[in-house]
Amino acid sequence: MSDQLKSGDRSDAIxxxxxxxxxxxxxxxxxxxxxxxxxxxxKAFQQERGLTSTGLVNEITQRALDEARWRLGDxxxxxxxxxxxxxxxxxxxxxxxxxxxxxxxxxxxxxxVKTEDAVKEFxxxxxxxxxxxxxxxxxxxxxxxxxxxxxxxxxxxxxxIKHSVRSPALADKVIVLDPSWGGEFTGESFHGVTESEIVxxxxxxxxxxxxALGVNxxxxxxxxxxxxxxxxxxxxxxxxxxLVIALKVDSYKNEKANGVATYYYGRDDKxxxxxxxxxxxxxxxxxxxxxxxxxxxxxxxKSWDLLRLTIAPCVRIDLGxxxxxxxxxxxxxxxxxxxxxxxxxxxxxxLYLSAEDDAKTGTLRISDLRRVGIRN
Length: 376
Known about the structure:
Elements: H1 12-23, H2 36-49, H3 59-68, H4 88-99, H5 113-126, H6 136-144, H7 153-164, E1 174-179, H8 195-212, E2 216-219, H9 229-238, E3 243-250, E4 260-267, E5 272-273, H10 275-291, E6 296-302, H11 305-309, E7 314-321, H12 325-331, H13 334-352
Parallel strand pairs: 1-2, 1-3, 3-7, 4-6
Antiparallel strand pairs: 4-5, 4-7
């Protein structure tokens, strides 16, 4: 398996990875040896794709490499069931359709129903067979048209308009909370708590406050189960969520690593990102840093599946490091988790406020929200 590959290994699987990275311009001389040059090439690939840059080929990186090897025109693209076609060729098609004004949703590299509908609309507009398949005739028609809009602006504008028409009231909105089950430090206790306990407790504090404000809240797990990521994504998409908030606590081999970071969907190599997701990530990051002494590790665009495949704007918040004694002590304090919950609630409300009704970072309190349209 690719997730077992390590430095010094030699195999056909490594050769395939090296050849892919060579074709993509990340590796000068491909070979079947996992050496330092391959490690650096993998890191560069991961960084460009918005993945965590580790130099290791885990399942996520392997899937990204598989997707990256496809170019538009290499194969016929169509809606398949139950496994959807994924690849950079799909991303290229989606980007092209977006530039021409057709709505295929996120440029996520997945040939889903919205992409098929956009292809059909395009086929109808140019007078070719309407079958929802991107084959030779559809490609020729695409290539003949001159780009009229650059950079995916229609998709960003469409997302912004869709968000702007929503009521500032939180009542009846649907918010999905996705508390992590944990990672490397899941089973290790710091100050009597573990990652899964911390984030689930925080999710419950958020849930209680949001329910009191009329929000419909969906938790992706209970205190005793840990659904797969694909199932959590399916849950978020099935409830027509307005927002998805993933909660996680980080860890690192060096205990000096500390601070909070927030992530939203974006791919710099494709020039696409979630407008609402980025704004929400910035609001949450600023509110948390204004109300706590957690180090500000900034917001970042990533293409992780949870961010990429959720229909609603989604952010992931890494709320400090359990491997850092100071962060672990803060997170173990229920009063500190109350501060985090208040910061997030205020950020959620600010996301829906107009510029005229918005307030400065760190000034609003939950008790103030009823005066700024929390309910209609």
